[in-house]
Structures are given as C-alpha cells and as structure tokens.
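Page 47, continued from p. 46.
Same chain as before, 255 aa.
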Amino acid sequence: MVTLLPNSRPLRSTDTTRRVARTVTQPSKLPLTGIVLGGGRSRRLAVTQSKLLIHIGGKLVLARVADTLKMICSELVLVVRPDQEDDVPDLGIALNMHVISDTNPYEGPLAGMHAGLTASTTPLSFVVAGDHPFVSRNLVTAMAAVATTDGIDSPSAVIPRTDGTLQPLHAIYPREHWVPYFAHAMAEGETSPRRVIEKAIASDYPPVTIFTEEDIERSDPRRISLHDIDTQEQLTAARKIAESRKFTPRHHSLG
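Result:
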C-alpha cells in the first residue's frame, strides 16, 4: 500500500502530522539501524579518493554522517565493496561501525542496501548514501515515526520524493519486508534501487509511504539533508553550507 503524507493525498492516520511534529522537537536514540553505503567509486566527482574521505567543514564526510546517526540510531552499519582497498573500511571501524561488504555476487547500491538490511538487528533501518554530509537527525526521526503509523506490526518504508524523484538512498526500510524483496529483485537482474521502489509502489507491496517536499521542510527547513556531492559544483556548495552553519544564534538547533 502506498501512502502520501500531507499536501498530497489522504493520510493513513489523521494524527501523522502531530506525530512528526512531536518527534522533531525531541530527537532521541531509537531502535533503528543506520546503514551507510560507502562503496561508491566517485567517478562523477573525478577525484582519486572516495567521497567519504573528503573534508567538509573540517571533518571527513563519513565521520559527519556517522556522528549524526550515532545520536539517534542504536547501531551503525557501513557497507563497502568486497574489493575496496581505500581507507573507508578502516575509518568505519575507527568510528565504531559494523563494516560489511555488498551481498555476493552482486554489486552496487542495491546489493549494499540488501547487505545492510540483512546485517541489521532492528525492525527498521535508515539507509543513506555515504556522500550525504548533512543528514538531519530530526528528519530521520520523523520518517521513522511515520514508518510505524499503523503500528510496529505493519511498518512501511518511508521514501522522500524531491522534484518528482524518489530518493531511495535516504530512506527508512522495514527489514522483514525488504530483505527478501531486494534479494528477489537482484536475482531478476535489477540493479536500480529507484526502479525497485517504483515496482513496489505499482504492486502495492511492500508498503511504501512517500515523504513529500513539504514533509521534509518541517524537519529540515533549509532542505540540505538530501544534498549529495556527486559533482565539483555540489562539493563547493556543500563546503559553503558547512561554513554557513558555523555561525548560528544561541539555542539554534542544526537538526
């Protein structure tokens, strides 16, 4: 079943908005696994090292992601390529992350998502691409709350949609439903997480809830949580964002 949050179509529950607002004000550690995909090759950025080892705001990108997720997740999993020889796996270990590799014999983000969910020990997981340096704990907490709107026994994946495009690499997934679903998709030759989500929406299973741009703005008013660094222009923009976040009024929450 596909559900869209406010400003799109009717909600599954009339109190979803209140749940999101309540969660946003008091983020706390959840029975949630944070799964960081760290096996990308950074081809589009045209650098010799992994994007996760780039400094933004005086901190390595992977450290930025891990430090944020540690505040709300009960465990962190870092998924790398089986042949990955850079410093990302060692950095993950230093950050106290559980480091694993893509599901054999597959590769790419879908294999990483499947491996991470398989390794998870919690019913819900937040999957994020490792090159998202501004992960918002408020946004993750809000999406996790929406995932269980119908109860913990009927969880839904929660997928953001921006500019009409689904963002499956910054989303909440229930382990029970999506481990077998991703495994079947890979066995059928599928490699695109977005196409897999679209097929789930078309078939009404596993359940998917769309997190709209309006929903994102409630938790992340600046809408920087989904900013990635695929290109030099995006990297430059990320460094400007990091610099601007250093100067904030007292009692201001960065999310």
